[in-house]
Amino acid sequence: NCQLKTTANPDRENCSLHNITIALTDMGTPQRTTQRSFFITIADQNDNTPAFASASFAASVAEESA
């Protein structure tokens, strides 16, 4: 088992696709090395706080419209 950790939160708007290459070397004699590359796609997240154009709104409905 292993974990891949980032030093900062990924920003999908800046870069949504990352190409990661991991190389492993054993401690045997002779040493053997292998590497694998893969892509990580960052999923979109609604990270924008809801906002209204105005602090209050006013509306009226005609009495006979209901």
UniProtKB/TrEMBL annotation:
GO terms for molecular function: calcium ion binding. Keywords: Calcium, Glycoprotein, Membrane, Repeat, Transmembrane, Transmembrane helix. It is found in: Membrane. CDD domains: Cadherin_repeat. One of its GO terms (cellular component) is plasma membrane. GO terms for biological process: homophilic cell adhesion via plasma membrane adhesion molecules. It is a single-pass membrane protein. The keyword Glycosyltransferase does not apply. It comes from the Eukaryota. Residues 11-52 form the Cadherin domain. PROSITE patterns: CADHERIN_1, CADHERIN_2. This is Cadherin domain-containing protein. It comes from Macrostomum lignano.
